[in-house]
Amino acid sequence: MEDNEVIIIGGGPAGAALGGYLSKAGIKNLIIDGANHPRKHVGESLVMSTYRVFKDLDFLEVMESERFVRKYGASWHAPNGKEFAAPFDQIEQEGIPQYYTYHVDRARFDLLLLKQAENLGSRVYQGVHVKKVLFENGRASGVRVNIGGKEMNIPSKVVIDASGRATILGNQLRLKKKDTLFDQYAVHAWFTGVDRGDGPTRNYIHIYFLPIERGWVWQIPINEAITSMGVVADKKVFRASFSDLSAYFSSSMQTNPRLQAAMREAVQITPFTPEGDYSYSMEKFVGNHWMMVGDAARFVDPIFSSGVSVALYSAKFASEQIQQAFATGDFSEAALKPYEDKLRKGVEVWYEFIRLYYKLMPLFTHFTQSPQHRLDIMRLLQGEVFERDETKVLDAMREYIQKVEASDSHLFKGHLTAVPID
Ligand SMILES: Cc1cc2nc3c(=O)[nH]c(=O)nc-3n(C[C@H](O)[C@H](O)[C@H](O)COP(=O)(O)OP(=O)(O)OC[C@H]3O[C@@H](n4cnc5c(N)ncnc54)[C@H](O)[C@@H]3O)c2cc1C
Q1: Of 67, 260, 404, 410, which has fewest CB within 10 angstroms of its CB?
Q2: CATH code linked to domain 4-68+104-178+280-346
């Protein structure tokens, strides 16, 4: 018996949003999360494009009434102390009538979104670990779970992997391909007493470049008092510091003058959490009667705060594809493939942007200052990535880099890194 038309493994933003969309479309779904929410999670700064999904899911009212911190822009700090601010009110985004998005305490945000899915009609099991996806005759047919120490099978017509970086299905089917270019590692914690300034950029996300390759620090306001701080760098850099994360963190804070000033009175209030091995892609995102959404499908470096937006849009696209499958009765890999193509296109735009960024970091700040390219860069930063044809600025970045590579005397020559861009 397939009482659950769709089983969704994971109740993070991808799983909860998908449940919400399916429930709105009248498709019965069960979300199973191994954790009991609220549970802690990294990924606290959103991009503007998330607005559309919140609106679709009648969730904007919740975002406003919960008073999540409004994020009006992003600011980038070079090691020499120079600041480049990018306010969000410089471009119009179709269907987005506000010039801010949000920073969120993920424990609270994820719980609220999961509750919203429940309000819309999803069934939710929490504290229930999915052990594996079941297959019969070459198609996914349900999941095996552990409920209170007892194992049992739950059948369904479609299985969705929304398990985040646990990537349950990618591991089970051995589809996971580690990113060969980026092996980044992060350490983060919450602080009080961070000096965020008083001006209009006070509640922006602040990104501080560190004077090491692909090294940076995020500063994300969680509420008036609490600020999330995280250091990101190549894993090799961390390896040398594993034994003393605290010393590593503190010394990183000294390497950018603005950051040092911001942290002068800071008091740590949560333990350091490390996050590693996080860039990968699956060979495929769909199969017969199964799909992957959010981080379960693909994870790219978090420098542009893209993860939650990708998770939400993957849910939107997956729900459209699933509705079509129910309409036609065809749940085959071929029938579900257009979803994969659409999602891949968007994530690849983020990935291309990230590669070009890490290839020549001063180029990013140069383009954000350039009257010709500034607005196109802003569109990307605000999450408009699903139409590659509309992201010509990436071609312009690539051409610029090629010119620097070919020149002997270009000012940026010494900043080129080994990251390949083709
Ligand atoms: C260092 C770092 C910084 C980041 N910064 C940002 C940022 O600023 N902004 C941003 O948008 N994104 C950021 N991200 C990315 C963001 O964290 C993710 O993209 C986002 O959480 C993806 O949502 P998801 O629903 O796919 O997965 P998750 O949020 O991870 O949810 C997956 C859920 O699945 C459940 N689960 C896992 N395995 C099982 C199982 N076997 N059975 C049942 N349930 C299971 C888990 O309990 C979890 O609740 C960052 C990521 C990293 C690593």
Answers
A1: 67
A2: 3.50.50.60
